[in-house]
Specification:
3-stranded antiparallel β-sheet; two-stranded parallel sheet; 5 helices; globular; WH-like_DNA-bd_sf; Methylated-DNA-[protein]-cysteine S-methyltransferase DNA binding domain-containing protein
Length: about 120
């Protein structure tokens, strides 16, 4: 059975998919109502559960706070498909990502836009 945190993160991943965006572990965890933990450990645990219990969700839209991924890994491939490329040579098996501001979810800006449209 999935944890409550994983279920909340799953909802946030659904939001990211609909918006066509990515977000950092910290931003996703805050949106879901908890802390990402040291080095994103809590988020990594949630993502592991999500990949097991909800494999259809685009878990790869959650990126580490330092905007790196495992070089040559599955996540890097998915991100390339949506136009997010690694930059330069990988270091210590990690590839740095070039992530344009428009590709990163900004919930505050989205909520302000929604409020303006309703008001």
């Amino acid at each position: 059975m999935a944890s409550t945190r994983a279920a909340e993160v799953a909802e946030v991943l659904w939001e990211l998919k609909r918006a066509g965006k990515v977000a950092t572990y910290t931003a996703i965890a805050r949106r879901a109502g908890f802390s990402a933990g040291a080095n994103g450990r809590a988020m990594k645990a949630c993502l592991k559960t999500i990949r097991r219990d909800w494999p259809h969700l685009q878990w790869w839209r959650a990126i580490s706070d330092d905007k790196t991924v495992k070089a040559g890994g599955e996540q890097e491939g998915h991100l390339k498909e949506i136009g997010i490329e690694p930059s330069g040579d990988p270091q210590d098996g990690r590839a740095s990502l070039i992530v344009e501001d428009e590709a990163v979810m900004n919930w505050e800006a989205a909520e302000e836009t929604e409020a303006a449209e309703l008001g």
